[in-house]
Design goal:
Elements: E1 2-12, H1 22-39, H2 44-52, H3 63-73, E2 78-88, E3 92-101
Length: 102
């Protein structure tokens, strides 16, 4: 079994952006889910392409470790166990996901 538990997007005042509002949260989730949809296939290049499509505009810090997992393990299809956005103090947001392959 392969397990990836990574931070995804880092957006908001703490990261040099305007405060995160509901519209921004929806856009962040759309970008996160596009990347997660690619990762669930087990394809490292698809994961990277999904994040590169928006120039990593949401600062996905799990980009490199997830790419490495997918590239090295070549685990095949997986599944998303959990996705969540965490509202941070002062108008910022960090998103997380847990996926498994095996």
């Amino acid at each position: 079994m392969y397990l990836g538990a990574v931070d995804l997007s880092h957006v908001g005042i703490r990261f040099g952006d305007p405060p995160v509002d509901e519209r921004a949260k929806q856009e962040i989730e759309r970008k996160d889910r596009a990347a997660l949809d690619a990762a669930v296939t087990g394809d490292a290049d698809a994961w990277f392409a999904a994040v590169a499509e928006h120039d990593d505009s949401t600062r996905i810090c799990g980009l490199a470790p997830t790419y490495a997992l997918l590239r090295c393990a070549e685990p095949g299809p997986g599944r998303l166990l959990h996705y969540q956005q965490s509202d941070e103090e002062g108008g910022s947001l960090v998103s997380i996901a847990t996926m498994v392959w095996g």
